[in-house]
C-alpha cells in the first residue's frame, strides 16, 4: 500500500474537535494518505516520510462535501418552469409528473449518462459522497431501474417511490400506497439503503407516510423524510416518530417541530438552493442551531425545485442568507451530511477516516462563502485517489 504526503497545507479543516475550534483547523499542516485512508495529520514540521509527496503551496484542504440529498436519476429538464417562476409563478409539486413522463420514456443508457454527468460535476466541486434518490419512475420497474442505476454511483441510495401519486393512480391513492409498500418495495429494497417519503399537501399525508416508512424499515431500509418544504405539516413529527435519520427541507417548522428534532436527534437537512430557485423564504437555520438541532446542508439537485449540483453555492447561501457562520456552514456540508447518512468514516479528516478531501485554491475555507460562484476546488481526492 503506497503512502502520499500532502504538505504545505495553509489551513487544514479536520472536523476533529481535539484540535480546537469548531472545525479542528490546523495551520501550516500536513496529512498522509495510506491507500484509501488518512493515516496521519499534524503540523508540517512533524510530518513523517511517505512514498511520495505533494506540496500544496499554502492552499486550504477540507473534508470532501457530503451531499445528503439529491435526485439525479431523471431525463429532461424544466428550465421553462424555472423561468416562469422567476416571473411570478409559484413552485408546485405537480411539476414532478413532467419529469416522471420524461424519465419513463428514457433509455437506461440515457439515464446512466445523465447521472454520470451530474456526479462528475459534483466531484469537480468537491463532493465526495452523494445520496441519490429514485422517485421519477413511480412504477415497479422504473423505480427498480432508477435504484439499480443509482447504485452504480453511490452506496447512499434512497427509494422514493412515494414522491407523488402518479397520474394513473390519481383516483386511487390508497392503491398506490399499497404498491409502494408491497411489490415496488420488494424490488427496490435490493438496491436501496434508505426509504423516503415526500410528506406534503398534494403528495403524502402523515398516515400514508408512516405506513411507507414502517414498511421500508421492516425490509431493512432506514428512513429519511421530505418534511415541511412548502408549508407547516406533519413531516417533521413523522420523521421523529419513526426514528428517521433526517428530516429534509424544514422550511416551515413550528416550535414543537424544532423541539422534536432536538430531542429525537433527527438531523435537519437544509437545502437552500431550493429556496433560491423557488423564490421561497430560507429555512431558519439559527433557530434550529440554537435549539441544539444537528444541521446538514445539501443541494437537493433535481430538475424541478433546484438544479444546482454545487455544495459551495449552498455554503455561500447558508452564510449570506441563513446567517450560519462560515464554520457552521462548512461543518454542516461535511460532518453534518455524514451524520445525516449515519456515516462515521467520512466528513472528517482524522487518522482512519476515508481519504475524501478537497483542495481549495485559497488560503482558508472562508473563501467558499467570501468568493461565491468562483471555482475554487482545484483537486478532489476520493478514497485516497485524485479525481484527474
Ligand atoms: O426535494 N420536494 C420534493 N421533491 C423535490 C422536487 C422534485 C421536483 O420538483 O422535481 C424536492 O424539492
Ligand atoms: Fe428532494
Automatic annotation (TrEMBL):
Provenance organism: Kribbella caucasensis
Protein name per its UniProtKB record: Imidazolonepropionase
Domain of life: Bacteria
Chief location bin: cytoplasm
Record's function text: Catalyzes the hydrolytic cleavage of the carbon-nitrogen bond in imidazolone-5-propanoate to yield N-formimidoyl-L-glutamate. It is the third step in the universal histidine degradation pathway.
Entry binding sites for 4-imidazolone-5-propanoate: 78, 136, 163, 229, 305
Subcellular location: Cytoplasm
Cofactors, names only: Zn(2+); Fe(3+)
Keyword field contains Metal-binding: yes
Gene Ontology terms, MF aspect: imidazolonepropionase activity; iron ion binding; zinc ion binding
EC numbers, comma separated: 3.5.2.7
Chain sites annotated for binding N-formimidoyl-L-glutamate: 136, 302, 304
InterPro entries, per database record: Amidohydro-rel, HutI, Metal-dep_hydrolase_composite, Metal_Hydrolase
Protein's UniProt keywords contain Iron: yes
Pfam families in UniProt: Amidohydro_1
Pathway this chain belongs to: Amino-acid degradation; L-histidine degradation into L-glutamate; N-formimidoyl-L-glutamate from L-histidine: step 3/3
One GO BP annotation of this record: L-histidine catabolic process to glutamate and formate
Domain Amidohydrolase-related: 61-384
Annotated Fe(3+) binding sites: 69, 71, 226, 300
Keywords, in A-Z order: Cytoplasm, Histidine metabolism, Hydrolase, Iron, Metal-binding, Zinc
Gene Ontology, cellular component aspect: cytoplasm
Sequence similarity: Belongs to the metallo-dependent hydrolases superfamily. HutI family.
SUPFAM superfamilies, per database record: Composite domain of metallo-dependent hydrolases (SSF51338), Metallo-dependent hydrolases (SSF51556)
Catalytic reaction(s) noted: 4-imidazolone-5-propanoate + H2O = N-formimidoyl-L-glutamate
UniProt binding sites for Zn(2+): 69, 71, 226, 300
Cofactor info, note text: Binds 1 zinc or iron ion per subunit.
Amino acid at each position: 500500500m503506497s503512502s502520499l504526503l500532502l504538505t504545505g497545507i495553509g489551513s487544514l479543516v479536520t472536523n476533529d474537535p481535539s484540535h480546537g475550534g469548531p472545525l479542528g483547523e490546523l495551520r501550516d499542516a500536513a496529512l498522509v494518505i495510506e491507500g484509501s485512508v488518512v493515516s496521519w495529520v499534524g503540523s508540517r514540521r512533524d510530518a513523517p516520510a511517505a512514498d511520495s509527496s505533494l506540496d500544496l503551496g499554502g492552499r486550504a484542504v477540507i473534508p470532501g462535501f457530503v451531499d445528503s440529498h439529491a435526485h439525479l436519476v431523471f431525463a429532461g429538464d424544466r428550465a421553462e418552469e424555472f423561468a416562469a417562476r422567476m416571473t411570478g409563478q409559484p413552485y408546485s409539486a405537480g411539476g414532478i409528473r413532467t419529469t416522471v413522463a420524461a424519465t419513463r420514456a428514457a433509455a437506461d443508457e440515457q439515464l446512466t449518462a445523465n447521472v454520470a454527468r451530474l456526479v462528475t460535476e459534483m466531484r469537480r466541486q468537491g463532493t465526495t459522497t452523494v445520496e441519490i434518490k429514485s422517485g421519477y419512475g413511480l412504477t415497479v420497474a422504473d423505480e427498480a431501474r432508477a435504484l439499480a442505476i443509482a447504485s452504480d454511483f453511490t452506496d447512499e441510495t434512497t427509494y422514493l417511490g412515494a414522491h407523488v401519486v402518479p397520474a394513473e393512480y390519481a383516483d386511487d391513492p390508497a392503491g398506490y400506497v399499497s404498491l409502494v409498500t408491497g411489490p415496488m418495495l420488494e424490488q427496490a429494497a435490493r438496491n436501496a439503503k434508505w426509504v423516503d417519503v415526500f410528506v406534503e399537501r398534494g403528495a403524502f399525508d402523515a398516515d400514508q407516510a408512516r405506513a411507507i416508512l414502517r414498511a421500508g424499515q421492516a425490509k431493512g431500509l432506514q428512513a429519511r423524510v421530505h418534511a415541511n418544504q412548502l408549508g407547516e405539516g406533519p413531516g417533521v413529527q413523522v420523521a421523529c416518530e419513526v426514528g428517521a435519520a433526517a428530516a429534509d427541507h424544514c422550511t416551515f417548522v413550528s416550535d414543537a417541530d424544532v423541539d422534536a428534532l432536538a430531542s429525537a436527534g433527527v438531523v435537519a437537512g437544509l437545502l437552500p438552493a431550493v429556496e433560491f430557485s423557488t423564490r421561497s423564504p430560507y429555512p431558519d437555520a439559527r433557530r434550529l442551531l440554537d435549539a441544539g438541532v444537528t444541521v446538514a446542508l445539501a443541494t437537493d439537485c433535481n430538475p424541478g425545485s433546484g438544479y444546482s449540483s454545487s455544495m459551495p453555492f449552498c455554503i455561500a447561501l447558508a452564510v449570506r442568507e441563513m446567517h450560519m457562520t462560515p464554520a457552521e456552514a462548512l461543518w454542516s456540508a461535511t460532518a453534518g451530511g455524514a451524520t445525516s447518512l449515519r456515516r462515521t468514516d467520512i466528513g472528517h479528516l482524522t487518522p482512519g477516516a476515508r481519504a475524501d478531501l478537497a483542495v481549495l485554491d485559497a488560503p482558508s475555507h472562508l473563501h467558499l462563502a467570501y468568493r461565491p460562484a468562483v471555482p475554487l476546488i482545484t483537486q478532489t481526492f476520493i478514497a485516497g485517489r485524485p479525481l484527474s
